[in-house]
Here is the input.
Amino acid sequence: MCVLLCQASYAARRDDPVYVRVLGAYAFMVRILVTGGAGYIGGHVVRLLRERGDHVVVIDDLSSGAARRIDGVDLRAISLTAPDAATQVASVMKREALEAVMHFAARKDVAESVARPTWYYRENLGGLVTLLEAMELAGLDRLIFSSSAAVYGRTEGAAITESDPALPVNPYGATKLEGERLITACSRAFGLRAVSLRYFNVGGAASTDLADRGASNLIPMVFDRVRSGRPPQIFGDDYPTPDGTCVRDFVHVVDLAEAHIAALDHLDAVEGNRVFNVGTGTGTSVREVIQTVAAVTGMKLRPEISARRVGDPAWVVASPALIDEVIGWRSSRSIVDIVESAWRAQHAS
Here is the structure.
């Protein structure tokens, strides 16, 4: 009985009072594929999905992810750029009777994308092409896409909206924007329902095993320099901002994970590909981040001022009004929460 119910469509099950009575707390269980689920953000989302009782299958080539983040989850080590990946993934989708997909598998280092643009297009767009081919083969029509505020390029201000110009200035941002466009085309071609979430600056951790181990984001970069006895760096202190340093919108990774769950539960109401910013609407300067790190760690930090980096805008802060209005999601954690949780996770490792 449960197997048959689990294979029914999510929309039908959600509206079926008999199903609700039979499965109780698992009435809205989703059978979902998470690509890149062993990564920093994907690992947080997988944990939330499992905690609420969803059936999760992860596809990850483990080139940057870590299997320990998702211990006990059904993990398939498949590269989405392999020649036969579409067939492999479609087979998994059918065999597991999956109903929806969250797609995190992608490269995300801006500098690396500038140095290796063709590889970035192959990895990010090629991987998405494979996934969409597999979804069409398997008859899946629900997708949450991990996009980025990098699609906006040099657009800046204290309230960037989804209708602001999308003019990416690096190959990474370009692959995300082209990914959104491809998803929109697929929604017209075979009825795909999708939500593309444009993240701003992500930080924090729910636990030690889910910590961000990369060194390309500001907070891990500060931690890395502090732990090695070097002063944190500020690239330019002469911007037109209150303290002269760049201002960014930092969102806690747990808030971001919750945004994905909210978007997943909203998919039945979506037609086409809806795009939403995921941020707090509050800006924090680089200097303020370093001051917060000093307060959290109890260390005296004197930052080193370096020259501006090419292409760094002064202000990049999201307007999260649309996702609040349409989906009902809003952030609840502060920059202090982000730094405290990130330091606790890093320090305990």
